[in-house]
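Quick one: structure for this chain?
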Amino acid sequence: HTILSEDDGVNDGGSVEICVLATSCFERNFTVELETSPITAVYGNDYSLLNEHITFTPMTTRGCIGVFAEYDEILEYNEQFALRIVPSDAILNPLDPNSTTITIIDNDYVEVFFDNSSYTISMEDGSGPSI
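Got it. Here's what it folds into:
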């Protein structure tokens, strides 16, 4: 599970690097395709990916992509989407976990409260807190 803040200051929103690991090195390039699934976040409105695939070069076991939170003007709470490995090459055998959930921490809302839990106004002399 990955946390992504909309307020990290990158491209008007936050970013996070998502990595896929291979259990062994391979002697040729291979590509891992990724698929997004909305939970509450919408692709293009709430987040975007640098790529929808990761290319592993020979003899590497780790590949990463950038995921970016898109800043929007909509007032909303935290949102989520899933990212899944899609078997796109005959050599690939996705193991668990073959998906991850990304949470966008959205700070569009402001919590408000009263300064005091009670106020008193005197009807006789008009004293009380000034407005």
